[in-house]
Design a protein that fits this description.
Order of helices and strands of chain B: HHHHEHHEHEHEHHEEHEEEHHHHHH
Strand order of the largest sheet of chain A: 2-1-3-4
Oligomer: heterodimer
Radius of gyration of chain B: 22 Å
CATH topology of the largest domain in chain A: Glutaredoxin
Low-confidence stretches of chain A: none
Mean pLDDT of chain B: 96
Structural class of chain B: alpha/beta
Strand order of the largest sheet of chain B: 6-5-9-7-8
Bound molecules: flavin mononucleotide, iron/sulfur cluster, FE2/S2 (inorganic) cluster
Distance between the termini of chain A: 24 Å
Mean pLDDT of chain A: 95
């Protein structure tokens, strides 16, 4: 990542645009590259550690590269009551990694997250921005196969 | 008291992609009435008469809050609609946004006019990204119809942080900062977003506004209880047959929601208000749902007889610790220590002092945490110690037996 900011315009941006810029970078590069933090800090006139501080605060931003598809399984009570642990296990088995890791081929990252507001269809997970509910271990393969 | 639809009256009746279907149901009449026949002061008075309270959890009187912002001597003011909905077990705002974005936009337009804001932000949690196009489209359609001449409505997306639902953390987030809570005062009505007077209201709160304007504050006061006027939209999940969203008159008994509507059986306990909500045992299901008794943001989780209450509270504490912004010690450290105690209880390493320690820690956290997260985190702990103390005692007793066993067996 030589010039991280070349795809995302940093001109005329203000501090209030920071979160949006970081989200764009996350979408573009699957993480917030170091170079992007440096460029953004310069463009906004902020110390780098403040930009880094924001980048590291939010669950949907990552300073480490994530896979092409990010699986976020809800681990809170309503899902827990509907056997989310079984879902977590079957996803782990299916893609061969544990939460916090990315598959060697870069296809999937797996994270355990807080309630995603889909408790009526618990257990639930997000794959990228798609909500999948009423999960069963059987459906996991089927769902994940739709993400190439 | 039966189901009653005020906030969700259009849900399922209109096409959320088409504003004309909403107008056919009488949509935007309240905005027209507000702009053509009422002064901002008239609107604030009507809301004050209605005694509408915030539906995001804290239950502050809207009219009083709006008046403070209205009177603040600044030209630039902001309205923020809090659509961060991240409380565990809460998805009623998601339902309302998905089924009827127009009533929200109408409520926003009226409120902004009343307080004198030219810009309104909708802060939408990242997990609800799938609603972004629908909401953007609804705003565009309202603009095309000429309903938003006095106001710019912008959507700001979060990036995954429960604490950003707390109003001061939310403002930090919109300003491009870490979503940490701020010290108060100053209050947002004085110095809020970008240091300007700001009103923050929940999605459901704002969706009450059009009907109050159309029917009057006195009408609204006839619904609900003495300190809780109107209805509440609940989301219910856990051990129930029909999880979902139900709107009930304030003061309806827990039983009505949990048993009659959601079809729960063999209930052991009900948690009202998400991870930091109160827990009540099955023999208190006649308790009314209201600000005076139990409410929170309206997220209700049901536990059946097979559930272990200490495990339930442990799970809630894991969430609260995970989502603590870390700014103040009692919350950051307190939630950690509590998790450690629950973990020990679970693996048979409890000690008799655990219950006292949980109580002492709870008191310290409630008194000295900076924001509502840390202040409310001990509620389920204290409730479970009150109503399900024997479950703690059993675990401690088992731990003691385990300790007395010769090592080779244990
Ligand atoms: C930790 C925490 C999380 C909160 N999350 C939300 C939320 O997701 N949605 C919401 O409307 N209010 C939430 N609140 C309450 C807000 O701080 C604020 O009181 C509310 O948005 C005001 O709107 P209302 O008066 O219409 O309820 C939260 C409060 C705390 C302490
Ligand atoms: S109480 Fe918790 S969430 Fe609130 S400011 Fe303190 S550390 Fe942050
Ligand atoms: S608890 Fe899993 S979506 Fe709410």
């Amino acid at each position: 990542m030589e010039r991280a900011s070349q795809d995302i315009s940093l001109s005329d941006k203000k501090r209030e645009d920071l979160l949006m810029l970081l989200k764009s970078a996350q979408a573009e590069y699957r993480h917030i590259p170091r170079a992007f933090i440096v460029d953004t800090a310069k463009a906004l006139g902020l110390p780098e550690n403040q930009v880094f501080g924001v980048a590291s605060f939010y669950a949907f931003l990552s300073v480490e590269p994530l896979g092409k598809h990010v699986i976020r399984i809800c681990q809170n009570l309503p899902c827990y009551l509907k056997n989310s642990r079984m879902i977590i296990d079957s996803v782990k088995k299916k893609i061969g990694i544990i939460p916090g890791e990315t598959t060697p081929d870069g296809r999937f990252s797996l994270e355990l997250v807080s309630c995603i507001g889909a408790c009526d269809v618990a257990p639930a997970m997000l794959v990228n921005h798609d909500v999948h509910g009423n999960l069963t271990p059987q459906r996991i393969s089927e769902i994940l196969n739709t993400y190439d | 008291m039966p189901e009653k639809q005020i906030v969700s009256m259009n849900c399922g009746k209109i096409d959320p992609d088409n504003i004309d279907t909403h107008i056919d149901q009488g949509g935007f009449k309240a905005l027209q009435k507000s702009l053509e026949k009422m002064t901002p002061e008239d609107i604030i008075n009507e809301i004050k008469t209605s005694e509408l309270k915030g539906r995001g959890g804290a239950g502050f009187l809207c009219g009083t809050k709006w008046e403070l912002a209205r009177k603040a001597g600044e030209n630039q003011k902001y309205l923020i609609c809090n659509a961060d909905e991240s409380e565990v077990g809460t998805f009623k705002d998601r339902h309302l946004l998905a089924k009827d974005p127009f009533t929200l936009i109408e409520g926003i337009a009226i409120t902004a006019y009343a307080i004198g804001a030219q810009t309104a932000f909708i802060y939408l949690r990242a997990e609800y990204h799938f609603l972004l196009d629908l909401l953007t489209n609804a705003i565009e359609q309202a603009k095309e119809k000429g309903f938003l001449k006095h106001l710019a409505v912008q959507i700001r997306e979060g990036a995954g942080a429960y604490i950003c639902g707390e109003e001061s953390a939310l403002m930090n987030s919109i300003e491009g900062r870490r979503g940490e809570s701020r010290y108060k005062p100053p209050f947002p009505t004085e110095k809020g977003l970008f240091d300007k007077p700001t009103i923050i209201n929940n999605v459901e709160t704002l969706m009450n506004v059009p009907q109050i304007i159309l029917n009057g504050g006195e009408w609204f006061k006839t619904i609900g209880t003495g300190n809780s006027r109107g209805t509440k939209v609940f989301s219910i999940s856990g051990d129930v047959e029909k999880p979902g969203v139900y709107e009930l008159e304030m003061g309806s008994p827990v039983k009505e929601l949990v048993v009659t509507l959601a079809g729960a059986k063999n209930i052991k306990a009900v948690q009202v208000g998400g991870a930091s909500g109160s827990i009540i045992p099955f023999d208190q299901l006649d308790t009314p749902l209201s600000f005076e008794t139990l409410l929170g943001s309206g997220g209700v989780i049901v536990f059946n007889n097979e559930r272990d209450i200490t495990d339930m509270v442990h799970q809630s504490m894991i969430f609260l610790s995970e989502e603590s912004c870390g700014k103040c010690t009692p919350c950051r450290e307190g939630t950690e220590v509590m998790i450690e105690i629950f973990r020990r209880l679970e693996i048979g390493e409890g000690v008799p002092e655990d219950m006292e320690n949980l109580e002492a820690l709870s008191e310290a956290m409630m008194l000295s945490s900076l924001c509502g997260l840390g202040q409310a985190a001990p509620i389920p702990v204290l409730d479970s110690l009150k109503y399900f103390r024997s479950e703690y005692e059993d675990r401690i007793e088992k731990s003691q037996i385990l300790r007395r066993l010769p090592r080779s067996i244990a």
